[in-house]
Amino acid sequence: METPGSQSSLHRANLERVVRAVRLAGSLTQAEIARTTGLSAATVSNIVRELKDGGTVEVTPTSAGGRRARSVSLSGDAGIVIGVDFGHTHLRVAIGNLAHQVLAEESEPLDVDASSSQGFDRAEELVNRLIAATSVDRSKIAGVGVGVPGPIDVESGTLGSSAILPGWIGARPAEELRLRLGVPVHVDNDANLGALGELVWGSGKGVRDLAYIKVASGVGAGLVINGKIYRGPGGTAGEIGHITLDESGPVCRCGNRGCLETFAAARYVLPLLQPSHGPDLTLEGVVRLARGGDPGCRRVISDVGRHIGSGVANLCNLLNPSRVVLGGDLAEAGELVLAPIRESVGRYAIPSAARQLTVLPGALGGRAEVLGALALALSEMGDSTLLDGSLPAVAPAFT
């Protein structure tokens, strides 16, 4: 039994600090581990050697700043995580290891009118199919991260009333999938997971404060403050789509008028173009036509960008993020949408906040949310289980 404050307990704490830093980042040089943990270079070197000898981490030669270095990552066979992304029209699943390597990934259409139980059944089938295809040892599964298009009540684990999928309101995704898969399940809304995915793998890498704006059937934001997702006490932080732009505007699904979502989301934007472009037009199609020079599609995307920029300006004035990452299909429009966003930010944000802001398209495209789900599962697992050589027991259901 270790005594608090003893040499052995301090050593154990340092081991866990190093493992956590590597687990969250995917890979770090020993110098980066020292900066991240605050431990001395000598201590980090000794701990990495111990972890390598124990099979917890792998060390490979690399370079940093033109100098030789050693990259440290968790062992590829130390454990497995699974990401599940439920979208308005899709289901996407990915399997990865603790070294941040994606082993398999697959997506399929999802009927927007399907019930939550049908969606959970489909997810279970797809997860099992990928496990079989990769020959993953189920005992190595450390956890599952799940993204859903709506806010999750942090106390009950239920999907809120402003969810995009009407048949899912009141569903408890974490509990449902935990019962089906028999492993710990962690759930968050899709915008938060998009932010987490871009933070770990994409356009937000190396940034401590950012907002990820997802524009699809709805409009949401994932907020990263000091390197961590900010959810708010009730789990509804980031609902940027319900900022009021016009009190006399269209009625939003939330019950208010003139929300940003009513000027930017696909369900409100597409009807503007369908009379001239046909009823089967999608947001992806609008972007493709706009990039090809279609004047109507270019005008609509420019208008959407200006409206999103108004919402981003409000975020700048409140939170002063250093970076905004635009995700979803709209990000593929590039400067056609980014330039109007920057214009509105320059007009409506406090000048000092606007000057410090960088607006970029997401680097991960439609994969941001499922990779964020992998990152969520990685962030929620305990470091002691890796050091003890055992994976966590099934997480308790919400009560």
Structure description:
Helices cover 42% and strands 20% of the residues. With 399 residues, it is an alpha/beta fold. It has a 5-stranded mixed β-sheet with strand order 6-5-4-7-8. Strands 11-10-9-12-13 form a 5-stranded mixed β-sheet, sandwiched between helices. It is globular.
Strand content: 15-25%
- CA distance, first residue to last residue: 33 Å
Range of helix content: 40-55%
The Rg value, from CA coordinates, equals 22 Å
Class computed from helices, strands and strand pairing:
alpha/beta
- In total, the number of strands is 13
The strand order across the widest sheet is 6-5-4-7-8
Q: What is the 3D shape? A: globular
- H/E element order: HEHHEEEEEHEHEHEEEHHHHEHHEHH
Biggest sheet overview = 5 strands, mixed
Tally of individual helices = 14
Average pLDDT reading: 89
Low-confidence stretches: 392-399
Secondary-structure blueprint:
Layout: H1 7-25, E1 27-29, H2 30-37, H3 41-53, E2 57-64, E3 67-74, E4 80-86, E5 90-97, E6 102-109, H4 116-134, E7 141-148, H5 173-181, E8 185-189, H6 190-201, E9 210-215, E10 219-225, E11 228-230, H7 261-264, H8 266-277, H9 283-291, H10 295-319, E12 323-327, H11 335-348, H12 351-356, E13 358-361, H13 368-380, H14 383-388
Parallel strand pairs: 4-7, 7-8, 9-12, 12-13
Antiparallel strand pairs: 1-3, 2-3, 4-5, 5-6, 9-10, 10-11
Helix pairs in contact: 2-3, 4-5, 6-13, 9-10, 10-11
